Amino acid sequence: MGLQFDDIYSIMETMKGKHMIDTNRRVYVYFNLHKKIWSVRQDGKVVDHTKYIMLKDARFLVGQAGREKVLRERKKNVHAGVSGFVVERVPNIPDAIHNVTYNPYKYDTFVDCIDREPVTYADYAVLECGDGWRNVEAIYENILKSSKVFACN
Fold this sequence. Notes:
The protein is α+β, with helices and mostly antiparallel strands. It has one domain. Helices cover 15% and strands 41% of the residues. It is built from 2 helices and 10 strands; from the N terminus they run H-E-E-E-E-H-E-E-E-E-E-E. The chain has helices at 5-17, 64-73, and strands spanning 27-32, 37-42, 45-50, 52-62, 80-86, 97-101, 110-112, 118-119, 121-130, 133-139. It has a 10-stranded antiparallel β-sheet. Strand 2 (37-42) and strand 3 form a beta hairpin. The radius of gyration is 15 Å and the shape is globular.
């Protein structure tokens, strides 16, 4: 599972050129259930769709009113995503990578895939998706914050 270097380079070139994401301002990234791809929103407007994006100063956000509506109506809506600054690379610190997940029927926040502890912030986040799968990784620069690396189901 994962994208090849050429795919990542192509995606980054698209993000830098065509869609004009301002890397000095935050974006909000969420998984688009209809298109099966990440949607990137800036200033309230969707500015890109991508299979791979890297963020710095990542905040894992869940709108509780939106979550409650999902629970009440049993119909999904956009209420959870990751906010941060788009970057072209993240530190390669294998022991500091945590896979995270969110399921409105099980959790009220994003959680670590192993210990199910809430995740609300990471120094970096990597979001990727492909045919029938998606993955979100939280990366911490300070190795003391992290001690496990596992995949999420």
